[in-house]
Amino acid sequence: MNTMTLWHITGWEFAALAFAALLVGFSKTAVSGANTVSLALFAAVLPARASTGVLLPILIAGDLLAVATYRRHAHWPTLWRLFPAVAAGVVVGTVFLMWADDAIVRTSIGAILLLMAAVTIWRRRTADAEQEPESVTTRAGRIKARSYGVLGGFTTMVANAGGPVMSMYLLSAGFRKLGFLGTSAFFFLIVNVSKLPFSAGLGLIDGRSLLLDLALVVFVVPGAIFGKWAVDKINQRLFEQLVIAATVVGGLQLLLR
Length: 257
Hints:
Number of helices: 11
Radius of gyration: 17 Å
Shape: globular
Distance between the termini: 21 Å
Helix content: over 70%
Number of strands: 0
Order of helices and strands: HHHHHHHHHHH
């Protein structure tokens, strides 16, 4: 990783990174998927590949706050169904990072996010009734969980962009607001922690990147507090619309950069 660039950021660039860290906290406790904006800010200030290594510990800090806030609302049968497929996606993403350049990574993930948003909108408009989270136990539910799991593992490994993919899965599975947030909180804490050795092995995390993380992680806390306050004011329909909108914005910014 080009760690020297981490020590030559300007005051405005640090402010952009601080705002991105605050937005991570907000996304973890309010609108999952909104941290695609954080991904874009980190990649704009830092070298694209290096930015993923700096952002990962920030995301883990947000995950810890989300778990502390919504731990009682997690749906563990869904999580157990997802983890094997996600592990496969992380391995595929690691291999992909070994040869793909930044342009290929951005285009691939942007296209996946837009596709997932389109599929979710279509499914919700044509469904006769909302599915319950327990639908994951059916054959169709298992296939869907595995498909989204592989995509989520792949996108979270190559660009820390698994949030929108899993948001689309949880919405399509019929999760209500608190169940959505509790399940995604545990999901991303476990997945992001498991990514640490892969990211370190690829040279994306080192001592200098961690020092920058220490300076930024304090901004995650106020973002998470504001997110917890805001989510209580958002009804289910608006919540779903915001999640889908954040996914579309994230996909477009990756494609158009």
